[in-house]
């Protein structure tokens, strides 16, 4: 196989796993009144060492700021997150977990334990750790390439806007 084919197979596998993660996540946390999107934001906040603005959460998760803002707003309505002043930016408030948010993410993780165990049992901890490292490296290459294209004015957004204006 050529490297391009290997990379495409990896991308297709990641897309398929992502779909399954979202569907499984929705099923796992439905009884908590959460969705995968909400759980993802709660989890991101639980494992970050300090509060973050929505844009940073989105960037860390590889999602759009708008998508994360929708989730954050819904979580705030339910009292699972709150906003605090950001000493670095007047308008971009920091998002923090509330006690209820910490409890919700802990319950979600508890609900996920059986499937976590099934995955670890079949795949093995070593292969999971290797996969994490591999996916982080792929993410880094993609981010660097996207940054390079953006700096060169060669992003997909640039081309879509150009075509729309022609």
Automatic annotation (TrEMBL):
It comes from Mesobaculum littorinae. It holds the Pfam family MarR_2. One of its GO terms (molecular function) is DNA-binding transcription factor activity. SUPFAM superfamilies: Winged helix' DNA-binding domain. SMART domains: HTH_MARR. GO terms for biological process: response to stress. Residues 7-140 form the HTH marR-type domain. This is MarR family transcriptional regulator. PROSITE patterns: HTH_MARR_2.
């Amino acid at each position: 196989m050529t490297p391009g084919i290997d990379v495409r197979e990896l991308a297709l596998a990641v897309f398929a796993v992502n779909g399954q993660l979202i569907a499984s996540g929705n099923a796992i946390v439905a009884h908590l009144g959460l969705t995968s999107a909400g759980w993802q934001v709660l989890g991101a906040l639980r494992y970050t060492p300090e509060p973050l603005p929505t844009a940073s959460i989105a960037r860390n998760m590889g999602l759009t700021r708008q998508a994360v803002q929708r989730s954050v707003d819904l979580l705030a309505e339910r009292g699972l997150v709150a906003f605090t002043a950001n000493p670095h930016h007047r308008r971009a408030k920091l998002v923090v977990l509330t006690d209820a948010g910490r409890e919700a993410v802990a319950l979600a993780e508890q609900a996920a334990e059986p499937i976590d165990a099934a995955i670890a049992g079949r795949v093995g901890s070593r292969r999971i750790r290797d996969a994490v490292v591999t996916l982080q490296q792929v993410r880094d290459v993609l981010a660097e390439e996207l940054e390079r294209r953006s700096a060169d004015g060669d992003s997909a957004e640039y081309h879509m806007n150009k075509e729309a204006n022609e």
